[in-house]
Design brief:
Elements: E1 6-7, H1 8-15, E2 18-19, E3 26-27, E4 29-31, E5 41-44, H2 57-62, E6 67-71, E7 83-86, H3 89-103, E8 108-113, H4 118-129, E9 135-137, H5 147-153, E10 161-165, H6 173-181, E11 185-188, H7 202-209, E12 221-225, H8 231-240, E13 244-249, E14 256-263, E15 268-274, E16 277-283, H9 288-303, H10 308-314, E17 326-332, E18 335-342, H11 348-358, E19 368-374, H12 383-388, H13 390-396, E20 401-405, H14 407-415, E21 421-425, H15 428-438, E22 443-448, H16 456-467, H17 471-474
Parallel strand pairs: 4-5, 5-6, 6-7, 8-10, 8-11, 9-10, 11-12, 12-13, 13-14, 18-22, 19-20, 19-22, 20-21
Antiparallel strand pairs: 1-3, 2-7, 14-15, 15-16, 17-18
Length: about 475
């Protein structure tokens, strides 16, 4: 295992900068956050809308940064040599990402995008590929103009598989990201009405998602969802790029196709044909959307020459993450309460999937199904309609009570029959006391909304409420 990710000399060359440190000075990694900086990492002082990273250079150096990448006009303490000066720090980050990708000559690089399921699919790829070699994945949801180059810059040269998430909410964003990633394999999980406030139609969203194919290396593969109504549109984009097209889904003729699926409240059992090879496996997370994306994951593993059976077996360790379906069970003398934490984000497709997953919970285990819903944002003029259409999904999941917050969720709430109305509030903060008062032992509670709807505090509020000793117990 190499002792360092970079040397200062390599960084100076890649970023076209200047530094007084010896060129052989070791650098263990690259960071843009002084709070999580590890010893011997390089700190890049990015200029953001709200904060300028140059304000934290001294803190980073005092915490053991090997060097700080700063812009030419930064006024440093006298005698400080641990500065690598560049014309523009964001461009330097991009340059480091580009250099890292260029030196990873033996790495199979996979890019993941889509309206729903990017982060979960990225994490599943990590789990599936680990039995076959060293895997590097982008941390958290580092999928934007700084997250992608940062993830690339932190990839080891001896990596076998590099997996990168790429996101967008405007046309043109994915084009820039995929040209940095230069994937051998690109996955588009699905196309759905997301960010409609920035697009004239869902077709335009499909075209923007197809930008991920523009960076494919010659002979690269596009893994596309055959069950999606925009499959043919995406396939035409792939053909224009002379990409190999591999389809996945339930549809007859899909290259990676589910043959049988047993959905459970906490996991799923799947039998699938993956490019001609039959595999049976368990997914350690509930929901048909996880099953769908597992097909894309195994197709990518096959194309990457990974061990397919080992990859399929490893998916038993694929669990939903915090904010993206994590299941939290709180037990007490009065009984158990289960929280399905879907609080990180929401759009119509992911909201339907979350409600369907809630509906898988057996009544013998939890008597009441409770949905706590916040506004889905960036949907443009179709927002109110797309919210009210969720009534059908609530019916299908046999949800007992709905708690809602946000201006658009008001329309959905008022469309529900009185027996299903738990409570409504304008904000999640105002909804919290109503929710903790109304939910009790024997309930399973699914909490979901867009990031801007601030639903995560409701998860925390329920945890505090049910984990705190009751007044009777204290007495």
């Amino acid at each position: 295992m190499p002792k360092s990710l970079w040397t200062v000399g390599e960084m100076v060359k890649a970023a076209r900068g200047k530094c007084s440190l010896p060129s052989g000075t070791k650098v263990s990694g690259v960071s843009i956050d002084s709070r999580s900086l590890a010893p011997d990492e390089a700190f890049i002082a990015l200029r953001g809308l709200n904060r300028d990273g140059h304000e934290f250079v001294e803190a980073a150096l005092s915490q053991g940064a090997s060097c700080a990448i700063v812009e030419q006009d930064f006024k440093a303490p006298r005698g400080e040599k641990r500065l690598l000066r560049v014309a523009d720090t964001l461009q330097a980050l991009n340059d480091l990402g580009t250099a890292s990708r260029a030196r990873a000559k033996d790495t199979v690089v996979i890019a993941v995008t889509g309206s729903v399921g990017k982060t979960g699919t990225k994490e599943a790829l990590k789990i599936a590929l680990m039995p076959s070699g060293l895997v590097h994945v982008s941390l958290k949801s580092h999928n934007n103009h700084w997250g992608v180059p940062l993830s690339l810059a932190n990839m080891r040269q001896d990596t076998n598989f590099g997996v990168f998430e790429a996101g967008m909410n405007h046309a043109g964003e994915l084009k820039a990201l995929t040209q940095l990633i230069r994937p051998h394999i690109a996955i588009i999980t699905t196309v759905a009405p997301v960010h409609l406030g920035f697009f004239r139609s869902v077709e335009a969203i499909a075209d923007a998602k197809a930008e991920i194919l523009e960076g494919l290396v010659p002979g690269g593969a596009a893994i596309l969802n055959r069950d999606n109504p925009y499959f043919e549109r995406l396939r035409r984009h792939a053909w224009q790029r002379k990409a190999k097209v591999v389809s996945f889904g339930e549809t007859q003729g899909a290259d990676a196709r589910s043959l049988s699926v047993e959905l459970g409240p906490e996991s799923s059992e799947v039998k699938a044909d993956i490019l001609g090879e039959t595999v049976s496996y368990r997914i350690g997370a509930p929901g048909i959307h996880f099953v769908q994306n597992s097909l894309a994951v195994l197709a990518a593993a096959n194309l990457a020459d990974a061990d397919l059976k080992a990859a399929a077996k490893a998916l038993a360790g694929w669990h939903a993450q915090t904010g993206r379906g994590e299941r939290i069970v709180i037990g007490g003398k009065g009984g158990r309460v289960a929280i399905i934490d879907e609080s990180y984000n929401a759009n119509p497709a992911s909201m339907r999937a979350a409600l369907a997953t809630l509906g898988l919970t057996p009544r013998e285990e939890y008597k009441r199904r409770v949905a706590v819903l916040g506004d889905m944002l960036e949907l443009g003029g179709l927002g109110p309609k797309l919210h009210q259409e969720l009534v059908e999904d609530i019916d299908a999941a046999d949800v007992d009570l709905v708690y809602a917050c946000g201006e658009m969720m008001r329309g959905l709430y008022e469309a529900l029959p009185a027996k299903r109305r738990g409570a409504y509030a304008k904000t999640s903060e105002q909804l919290a006391p109503l929710l903790t008062k109304g939910v009790g032992a024997g309930d399973v509670v699914m909490i979901k909304g867009s990031f801007g709807s601030r639903m995560a505090p409701l998860v925390e509020a329920l945890q505090r409420h049910f984990q705190a000793p009751s007044k009777a117990a204290q007495a």
